[in-house]
Design a protein that fits this description.
Distance between the termini: 57 Å
Shape: elongated
Order of helices and strands: HHHHHHEHHHEHHEEEEHH
Strand order of the largest sheet: 3-2-1-4-5-6
Structural class: alpha/beta
Number of strands: 6
Number of helices: 13
Radius of gyration: 21 Å
Helix content: 40-55%
Length: 285
C-alpha cells in the first residue's frame, strides 16, 4: 500500500470495513463497547472515520468479531498504520476543518452551494484575507495568514494538470453584493470568478434575488464524491464550533435532489458570467 495515501480517506475506508464486520457478527456498537470496556461513542467514532484508529484497536475488534483470516487482519492493520500518517495540511498545525480538507483532497467532484460568500476554492488571496479577518475578529495576523495559506494550497486541486477536481458551484446573488474588503477586492474577485468558470472542469451558476424562495434558502452545503466506489459520497455542512458530515444514502440523495433543483432554477453558465461581469462593472463605477 502506498505511503502517501490520504489518512482521512483511509480512516473512512477502515471504519466502513469495521462496521461491516460488526454487522456480519450481528453485534451492536453498544455490545462491542461492553466487550472491550470502552465507550460506545469510541466505537462510533472509529466506524465513521472521525477518530484515528490504532493497530491495537483493529486487533481487539478483529478478536471480538472472530476474524480468522490473517490476510484480512493484516490488511486492516496496514490500513490503520496508513491512517495515522499526516496529510499535507498537518504541516500548518491545528486546522479546525482538517477532516473536510482530507476529504476534499481525495474527492473526484464537489458540488457546493453558498448563499453568503464565494467558495474557498474560488477565492482570491486578498478576498480570502479580508473574509477571514472579518469573520474571525479575534484571530491574530499569524492565524489569518495560516488559514489563507491553507486555502491557497487547497486550490491546487482546481489547477492540477492531471485529474483536477470537478467543481460545480451554485451561488446566491448575495455573494456578489456583499462587499468583502473593498471595491477593488471585489472587482478582482469577480473577475477571477469569471476566469475560473471558463475552465472545462469548473461550472459556476448564479441564483439572482428575483428568483425569490428556492431550495437553498436553508443554508450552505457541499456534496463530495470520490473516485473509488468503496467511498460513499458525503454531504458537508460547515458550523461555527463543529461541522456536520452526512453519509447515509438517504441523506446524500435528499441533498443531491435539492442541488439539482438549485441548478435548474439558477441562471445557466453563460448567463451567470454575464451577471457577474455586470456586478463587477458596478463596483468599478
Amino acid at each position: 500500500m502506498a505511503s502517501n495515501v490520504n489518512p482521512t480517506v483511509r480512516r473512512r475506508r477502515l471504519g466502513q470495513e469495521l462496521r461491516r464486520l460488526r454487522e456480519l457478527k450481528g453485534m451492536t456498537a453498544e455490545e462491542v463497547a461492553e466487550r472491550l470496556l470502552v465507550s460506545q461513542s469510541k466505537i462510533s467514532r472509529l466506524e465513521n472515520g472521525r477518530r484515528s484508529i490504532s493497530q491495537r484497536d483493529v486487533r481487539d475488534l478483529c478478536g471480538v468479531y472472530e476474524v480468522e483470516d490473517h490476510r484480512i487482519v493484516d490488511s486492516l492493520m496496514q490500513m490503520a498504520k496508513d491512517s495515522r500518517q499526516q496529510g499535507w495540511w498537518h504541516s500548518f498545525g491545528d486546522i479546525p476543518y482538517s477532516v473536510y480538507i482530507g476529504l476534499e483532497t481525495d474527492a473526484a467532484s464537489l458540488r457546493v452551494y453558498d448563499p453568503q460568500v464565494v467558495p474557498g476554492l474560488l477565492q482570491t488571496r486578498t478576498y480570502a484575507e479580508s473574509l477571514i479577518s472579518g469573520a474571525l475578529p479575534e484571530a491574530t495576523p499569524t492565524d489569518i495568514d495560516k488559514r489563507v495559506q491553507v486555502r491557497v494550497r487547497r486550490q491546487e486541486r482546481i489547477s492540477a494538470a492531471d485529474n483536477p477536481l470537478r467543481l460545480w458551484a451554485v451561488l446566491d446573488e448575495a455573494t456578489l453584493r456583499r462587499e468583502v474588503g473593498n471595491k477593488q477586492v471585489m472587482i478582482e474577485q469577480l473577475e477571477h470568478l469569471i476566469e475560473m468558470s471558463q475552465l472545462p472542469h469548473v461550472t459556476v451558476q448564479l441564483i439572482p434575488f428575483t428568483m425569490g424562495a428556492h431550495p437553498g434558502v436553508s443554508g450552505q452545503y457541499a456534496i463530495l464524491e470520490f473516485p473509488d466506489a468503496a467511498d460513499s459520497s458525503v454531504v458537508y455542512i460547515e458550523g461555527v464550533t463543529s461541522d456536520l458530515y452526512l453519509e447515509k444514502a438517504q441523506d446524500v440523495q435528499q441533498y443531491s435532489v435539492m442541488y439539482e433543483h438549485l441548478r435548474a432554477q439558477a441562471l445557466n453558465a453563460d448567463q451567470s458570467r454575464d451577471f457577474i461581469s455586470k456586478v463587477a462593472k458596478e463596483y468599478a463605477r
